[in-house]
Amino acid sequence: STSLSVIVNFLFLAAVLYYKVSGYQVKVLLLKLAKVTGASLIMGLVVYGLYGLAIAWLGTGLLARILGLAGVIGVGLALYVALMSRLQIPEFQELLQHVRSRLIRS
């Protein structure tokens, strides 16, 4: 029921925003949503498979699980960044530029 209420609330707020700003490009928004969903799905499947392999290779001890999880998270993050960069989503490109500029200044 919580998920349903979140979805209904999202749809209501999206409709209100649509009328407040005199419309926005729904097709473009849905295309970006599909791209992000696809990248997330691919990353999730890869991470799910890799974690099983990591545990099988490293063992089931606590340290092995921590190392396996950390490695899989790193691979998942790198894969997601690569996929999002390849999909040419402008908002993600802006985020990357912002992160790069912050890292260069530090």
Keywords:
88% helix, 106 residues, mainly alpha, 4 helices
Please outline the major beta sheet: none
Task: Give the mean pLDDT.
Answer: 93
| Backbone shape | extended
One letter per element, helices H and strands E, the order comes to HHHH
Strand content: under 5%
Sheet/helix structural class: mainly alpha
Descriptive overview:
With 106 residues, the protein is mainly α. The protein is extended and about 55 Å long. The mean pLDDT is 93.
Quick overview:
This protein has 106 residues and is an all-alpha fold.
Question: Layout of SSEs?
Answer:
Elements: H1 2-20, H2 26-58, H3 62-86, H4 90-105
Helix pairs in contact: 2-3
